[in-house]
TrEMBL record:
Note on cofactor: Binds 1 divalent metal cation per subunit.
Catalytic activity: D-ribulose 5-phosphate = D-xylulose 5-phosphate
Keywords: Carbohydrate metabolism, Cobalt, Isomerase, Manganese, Metal-binding, Zinc
HAMAP family the UniProt entry points to: RPE (MF_02227)
Organism: Nitrospirillum iridis
Record CDD domains: RPE (cd00429)
Cofactor requirements of the protein: Co(2+); Zn(2+); Fe(2+); Mn(2+)
Active site per the UniProt annotation: 37, 181
GO molecular function: D-ribulose-phosphate 3-epimerase activity; metal ion binding
Top-level division of the source organism's lineage: Bacteria
Name of protein: Ribulose-phosphate 3-epimerase
Function statement: Catalyzes the reversible epimerization of D-ribulose 5-phosphate to D-xylulose 5-phosphate.
InterPro entries found in the cross-reference section: Aldolase_TIM (IPR013785), Ribul_P_3_epim (IPR026019), Ribul_P_3_epim-like (IPR000056), RibuloseP-bd_barrel (IPR011060)
Length: 226
C-alpha cells in the first residue's frame, strides 16, 4: 500500500563546502530522508563521495540516510557504507553480477535494501527479487547529475511497479517504498505521487534559494497532502 509521502533531499545539490551544515539545515527544514548520491566515474560519468563522507555526516542528522550507490562493481563497498551509517542502501542491477546476492548482503548487515532502475531498465528486472527488497527506486533521469529534466515515460513504470508492490505486500504487513529520483519539482511531485510513488528525491528543488528557502521548498514538494 502506498505510504505517506516522504521527501528525500539529494545532497548532490547542496553546498559541498558546507555539507554538515547543509544536512542539518534540510533536517531542520523537514526532510524525511537524506539522499546521498555515490558516483564512481565508471558506472556513471561523475564522481562524488565515499563512505568517509557518509560517516562524517552521520552525527549531523538522525534522519534516514538513503544511500544511492551508482558504482560498479558494487559489492565490495556495501559493508563500508553500512558501517559508515547508511540506513537504506540502493544498488543498480547492472552494477554487479548477482543482484539477489547483493540484496542479501545489504540485509545481512541490518540495512534496508533498495533496487534502482535506470530509465531504460525494464520492470522485469524485479521479477525474482520482490521478496528481497525494501525499496524500489525509479530513476526519472539518467543517473550521474542533478538538475536534469524528468523523463515522462517513467510515469508508466512507476504505475507498473506500484501494482507489483501492492500485489506482493497485500495482507502481509510488509512495506516496500517506491522512490522516484530525478527532475522532481513542485509541479511533478503530485504527478509522481498519483502514479504511486511515496518517496520523492529532490536535489535542485530542495536546495534552490539557499537555506532560508529549504522549509518552503520541502513543504511545496509535499503538496496539498500535508
Ligand atoms: O541520483 C541522482 C542523479 O544520478 C539524483 O539523486 C539527483 O541528484 C537528483 O537531483 P535533481 O534531479 O532532483 O536535481
Ligand atoms: Fe539519487
Amino acid at each position: 500500500m502506498q505510504q505517506p509521502v516522504r521527501i528525500a533531499p539529494s545532497i548532490l545539490s547542496a553546498d559541498f563546502a558546507n555539507l554538515g551544515a547543509e544536512v542539518r539545515a534540510v533536517d531542520a527544514a523537514g526532510a524525511d530522508y537524506i539522499h546521498i548520491d555515490v558516483m564512481d566515474g565508471h558506472f556513471v560519468p561523475n564522481l562524488t563521495i565515499g563512505p568517509m563522507v557518509v560517516q562524517a555526516l552521520r552525527p549531523h542528522s538522525a534522519k534516514v540516510f538513503d544511500v544511492h550507490l551508482m558504482i560498479s562493481p558494487v559489492d565490495a563497498f556495501v559493508a563500508g557504507f553500512a558501517k559508515a551509517g547508511a540506513d537504506i542502501i540502493t544498488v543498480h542491477p547492472e552494477a554487479g553480477p548477482h543482484l539477489h546476492r547483493t540484496l542479501q548482503l545489504i540485509r545481512s548487515l541490518g540495512k534496508k535494501a533498495g533496487v534502482a532502475l535506470n530509465p531504460a531498465t525494464p520492470v522485469s528486472v524485479l521479477d525474482y527479487v520482490m521478496d528481497d527488497v525494501d525499496m524500489i527506486l525509479v530513476m526519472s533521469v539518467n543517473p550521474g547529475f542533478g538538475g536534469q529534466s524528468f523523463i515522462n515515460s517513467q510515469k508508466d513504470k512507476i504505475r507498473a511497479i506500484r501494482q507489483r508492490i501492492d500485489a506482493v505486500t497485500a495482507g502481509t504487513g510488509r512495506v516496500i517504498d517506491l522512490e522516484v529520483d530525478g527532475g522532481i519539482n513542485a509541479e511533478l511531485a503530485p504527478v509522481a505521487i498519483a502514479a504511486g510513488a511515496d518517496v520523492l528525491v529532490a536535489g535542485t528543488a530542495t536546495f534552490q534559494g539557499g537555506p532560508e528557502a529549504y522549509a518552503d521548498n520541502i513543504r511545496r514538494l509535499r503538496g496539498p497532502l500535508v
